[in-house]
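Run log // design_07
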């Protein structure tokens, strides 16, 4: 569940002495409170009854769909860390993670099969410490790798996405979505190996 999935991300947050204010998504908020309160407060947690309906309709969702509204909220709250469960497949979470991954004001500093953490790119303390991003893709199971592949899609992480598809195919050589997407990625890079995976897709998945 969320508790298990977010544990490593919170451990990283604590170990690297990251700080709030935190912008987080609904799915992960309650666990962040459990691990980080009272030192850090969350933006939202998993108790819908604790927030007026207008908060979700006028603030939380629009912030993720509209870059300008996030920037306005950012000016108000001065977010220092974005902490999301990237398995959140709501349209607004998908849109937000895509745009924030391409926003040079923010740097992805942690990723696993459940959690992604961004910090401000000009966080001088982190720069002084030279904290290297931790990107975990060393999972032996399909579920974790599929979740990572989904995260990498459409976010300018082409090399990482390709590597994850290859790991998926090491486990299941005829996993159709990986064959299809890997063929497309390699073709876009003019890599002749794309035809190998395209042929496998046609033989096994059509």
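design_07 sequence
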């Amino acid at each position: 569940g969320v508790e298990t999935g977010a544990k490593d991300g919170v451990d990283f947050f604590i170990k690297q002495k990251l700080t709030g204010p935190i912008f987080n998504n609904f799915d992960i908020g309650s666990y962040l409170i459990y691990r980080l309160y009272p030192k850090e407060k969350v933006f939202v947690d998993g108790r819908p009854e604790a927030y007026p309906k207008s908060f979700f309709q006028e603030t939380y969702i629009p912030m993720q769909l509209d870059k300008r509204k996030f920037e306005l909220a950012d000016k108000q709250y001065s977010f220092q860390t974005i902490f999301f469960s990237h398995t959140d497949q709501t349209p607004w979470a998908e849109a937000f993670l895509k745009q924030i991954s391409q926003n040079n004001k923010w740097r992805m500093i942690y990723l696993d099969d459940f959690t992604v953490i961004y910090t401000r790119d000009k966080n001088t303390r982190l720069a002084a410490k030279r904290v290297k991003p931790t990107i975990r893709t060393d999972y032996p199971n399909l579920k974790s790798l599929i979740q990572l592949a989904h995260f990498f899609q459409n976010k300018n992480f082409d090399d990482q996405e390709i590597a994850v598809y290859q790991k998926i195919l090491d486990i299941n050589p005829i996993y159709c979505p990986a064959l299809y997407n890997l063929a497309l990625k390699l073709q876009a890079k003019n890599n002749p190996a794309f035809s190998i995976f395209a042929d496998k897709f046609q033989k096994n998945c059509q």
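The first helix runs from residue 2 to 15.
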